[in-house]
Structures are given as structure tokens and as C-alpha cells.
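Each record in this resource describes a single protein on a pair of labelled lines. An example record follows, reproduced without changes.
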Amino acid sequence: MVEYLPSLPLAMYHTAMQSENCEELPADPRVWSRDQVAVWLHKSAVQYRLRSSNPERFPMNGKALVLMTKEMFLYRVPEGGGFLYEDIQFRLQKLFTDSLDEATRDALLQITQS
């Protein structure tokens, strides 16, 4: 199975996507509707030049999507499922890192104000 290389590294891709008009996709993929999963799939297919990313293979909301393993992505999209899996994992990691950073900042503020 051949996977296509993305035209941009994943982190650069997310920066570019955030600077574009992406308000239809909340930062947290766990809250995505089925329609938003389809939008993400389409945008990812264009970005990563995937040929076989049929939205009918992902009849689910974001909660179900984030529970999928890499093997499940590869089963649904043999040519590129790995990129889709990594994209979701990157989004979740960024979400958790950002929330941890907020918690750390809040804790430091409380310590300095004491």
C-alpha cells in the first residue's frame, strides 16, 4: 500500500488551516457532527491528495472518530488512512496541550498572587 506524502508537514498544515476560514470545524474533534467529519475528511483528502477518502466509509460523529485505531483508518482508507489518523491525533494532542498550558498558567497566577 502506498500512502501519499502530505505537501506540508502536519504542524504547518494545521497552522495554515487555522489561518484560513475554518469556522465550521471546532478545535475539538470529539464534538464534531457527522457533517463536520465529512468536511474534515474532504479538506484532508485535498490536502494529502488522497484518492479513496469516501465519506460513506466514515458514517460517524467526532466522538466515534477519535476512538478509531490506526488500523481502522487504514481499513477505510488504505491509501492515506495513516495521515487521517495522525491528523486526528495531532488535533487531540494540541487540544490537551493547550488546555494543560491554560491550567499551568492559572496555577502560576494563583501561586504568584498568594
